[in-house]
Amino acid sequence: MNPIKPSTFPTILRNSHRTLRPQSFVPTSYQCWRSYSAQASPSLVRATSLPAPHTGRIRVLTLNRPSARNAISAALLNELHAEVAAIAAERGEGDTRALVLASDVDGTFCAGADLKERRGMSAEETAAFLSLLRSTFTTISTLPVPTLCAVAGTAFGGGLELALTTHLRVFASTATVALPETRLGIVPGAGGTYRLPGLIGLARARDLILTGRRVDAPEAYFLGICDRLVQVLPEDEVEKVEMEGLDPDRSAAAMRQARDVALTTTVEVARQICDGGPVAVRLALQAVEACALGEKAENAAYEQVLKTEDRMEALRAFAEKRKPAYKGR
């Protein structure tokens, strides 16, 4: 298996994306959303399919709202929900072997909720937005396929909460995350108060949520917020990028490089996961997610995988000293 080079993958992504949106995705219970979602506009969530090892595809969803640093507007949320719902509808038995979330915007993953849009919403519209935001994030967190997130820039508020919905997070060394809601007079409202403690522990999560402070990539890796940390720039270059007004062309190129390397690394991790037996990966994920059930969950998963064709193929390949050819059965 040849890894996709950092210099080539972004080009593949830009040239091959296609979006699978319903023609008119408007929550039927909230007609007030039409003012936000009915207008024709460029795709805010770009969808790409890359071939996975053995069978199926790796689905890549990239946020693409550069004018607002990928802030989650109602229109962006509609598109993200539609894409995620399509994957969820497969129930782990379709072509999607893994999902990668990323950004098409240099310097940012997601700035969180679109506060400018929120200021113009009525109470009913705000309730509708929050309901769909939470259900979309919950759907991502419960997908039966491995989910990964590439973060190379800022992920604040709802942006970090979106990253927390995935099973694995890959950070470039230029990433910065925070849950700053208390400084804005609110609290995290899309899973931050329970997903972050579940990931890094109550004491550490309490610190980040109460102070709202920003955490750079090395500290995020130390705390356990990210699973892989990719150094993409020398430390002195990182400092220059962080200083506004210093060689903007060089800074822009550095941010683009960070985003490309983070995404390429994340896709490669997804490929490594998908190189395993499709059924085995799915059941292993199911068992790990049900770790509270302990031995019962593990035994149930093991009994299911014992009966698969892939397991027999693995035994034959081991005996014949070759790589197994899994078929997902």
From TrEMBL:
SUPFAM superfamilies found in the cross-reference section: ClpP/crotonase
InterPro entries xref list: ClpP/crotonase-like_dom_sf, Enoyl-CoA_hydra/iso, Enoyl-CoA_hydra_C
Keywords: Lyase, Virulence
UniProt keyword Isomerase, yes or no: no
Gene3D superfamilies: 2-enoyl-CoA Hydratase, Chain A, domain 1, Lyase 2-enoyl-coa Hydratase, Chain A, domain 2
GO MF annotation terms: hydro-lyase activity
GO biological process, one term: fatty acid beta-oxidation
Gene Ontology CC annotations of this record: mitochondrion
PANTHER family: ENOYL-COA HYDRATASE-RELATED, SD19268P
Family: Belongs to the enoyl-CoA hydratase/isomerase family.
The protein, known as: ClpP/crotonase-like domain-containing protein
Biological source species: Lineolata rhizophorae
